Amino acid sequence: MDSIPATADLLHLLRDWDQYRPDMKGYISPSADVKLPLPKISFEMNILKIRDYLQADEAMLSHSAPFTEALPALRIPGTDAPLGLWLNEQAICSTGLELPQNLPRFVPADKLAIRNPRWHSKLLVASRPILQKMHADNNGDFEITLAGLTVMGPSGASPTGQLSLPSSGYAVLHVLLPSSAEGAEFVLCHAGSTLRSSFPADDLQCGSYVIGAYTGVDSAQFTCTSGILSCLTYAVTTTPPRRRFANRPMGIEYISGASPGLRDTFCAWRYAIENSATKVKRIMFITLDEDIDITVQPMVSSLQDRDRDFLMHLAPLAKAYGFRFYFCTAIHTESGTYEVAHPYKEYYEGDGLDLEDVELEDADDSGYEWEVYELSGLRVSGPARKGLQAAVKKAAKRGDLDSIREREPKKTHSDTECGLYSDIHFIDFTRTGAFLVVVA
Q: Which branch of life, at top level (predicted)?
């Protein structure tokens, strides 16, 4: 469920919620295996916390990290060429290759021998944080299988296009072995996005690099600068889960531009509503940051900055998991008095009351007035209105709307009671706010 593009007309897209259709890329069916990003707090607090650090999954297609814990001690059976430490020109030539005409060369796994018994386990440990960054580690239930070796010159190569990979593989790990190349680059292109990872010569000479990438991308290509570059490629597949829960779906088709934390929160919330033995909250109120003009309808078109960005991430996920959106406007009023003393009133020539300095005395809290609207700007009517009004009233009693009280009030002067040595001014403090209401 990609977030709505920044250039989109939100009102045009969302005014008819029943007809709105997000893409379902990245959708994960509700299940017990999908956990809240912050498991010790509520669904509502998860959403509010994630909003403070909202980011898309744009860097998930690939991730890399240095790897210096081990070398494979690699050999090609039938030759005397050790290829573990340096795949340099001499080692390549000793295998019978003529440079550079015979590059790139692709050697399948069954033609390779890795002599270091610690290599696989060390690589497996190193690959976990890389796949985690890609949201592709399947909660640790994955394995890696050697697909083959690619040896390339400056013209580069695409290992996944030549080596045989299992159909169940959803990602690959490329291991750049130490090299005398004067630099290398990995370029991945998919759906209009291009990700580049550069590896300077000094880094390549000091150790290996592990690059994770999803299979099924439009293209993935290595290039190197004046030298020889060697790369082991591993297929990443899922393993039977170590827990009683089923594996979550893995693969590029499950990546979306929406925040993964928000996606998992809505997914877990929907599962809890449908399967929990205890009562699960079915409605939440999300305070909008901006002091928008609540007299302007529809409010969708007047959202700015973080509120707009948030709704663009939230709407596709809410629709995909069967939730509805409404706007709630609230007006909170306090009335009170403010006394201005004039001991020598007969000589006083003031400039009138400065409302900026006024603080209420003996304030009377008259509570809230609220209204609930469709995203199109129409007031909610019928049974839905009655139910939402009751929910808003309960929310106000619980204090869910109290953030409005912290806002700067609009101060109005309604009347003055003049005394001999002081004047009593009657002042109204009015605060307004808007909430996004999410309903299961």
A: Eukaryota
What torsion do the CA atoms of 38, 43, 47, 53 make, to the nearest 10 degrees?
A: 0
Domain boundary among the residues 204, 238, 272 is at 238
Question: What is the share, in percent, of the chain residues with pLDDT greater than 70?
Answer: 82
Judge whether 433 lies within some domain: yes
Task: Name residue, tokens 């290595």.
Answer: 222
* Spatial separation of the C-alpha atoms in residues 10 and 20, rounded to whole Å: 11
Angle formed by the axes of helices 260-275 and 305-320, nearest 10°? 40
As for how many domains the chain has, the answer is: 2
Q: Which domain holds residue 418?
A: 1-57+256-440
Per-residue model confidence as pLDDT tens digits over 113-149: 888 899 999 999 999 999 988 878 887 889 999 999 9
Top pLDDT among 298 and 402 is at 402
What's the rounded Cα separation, in Å, for the pair 135 and 251?
A: 10
Q: Name 293's Cβ contacts closer than 8 Å, sequence gap at least 6.
A: 302
Average confidence (pLDDT) over 258-264: 80
What does the pLDDT look like over 50-97, one tens digit per residue?
887 765 554 467 889 999 888 888 777 665 554 443 444 334 433 444
191 and 272: one domain? no
pLDDT tens for each residue of 163-195? 888 888 999 999 998 887 888 999 998 877 788
* pLDDT higher than 60, residue 355: yes
Mean pLDDT (the chain, rounded): 79
C-alpha distances out from residue 285 to 3, 18, 158, 232, Å: 21, 21, 50, 51
Torsion angles phi and psi, residue 394, rounded to 5: -65, -40
**Cα Dmax for the chain:** 114
Under a CB-based contact definition with an 8 Å cutoff, are residues 187 and 268 in contact?
Answer: no
How far apart are alpha carbons 383 and 191 in whole angstroms?
44
The C-alpha angle 166, 168, 173, rounded to 5 degrees, equals: 65
Q: What DSSP assignment string belongs to 337-394? A: EEEEE-TTGGG-------GGG---EEEEEEEEEEEEE-TTSPBP-HHHHHHHHHHHHH
Q: Name the more confident of 30 and 406.
A: 30
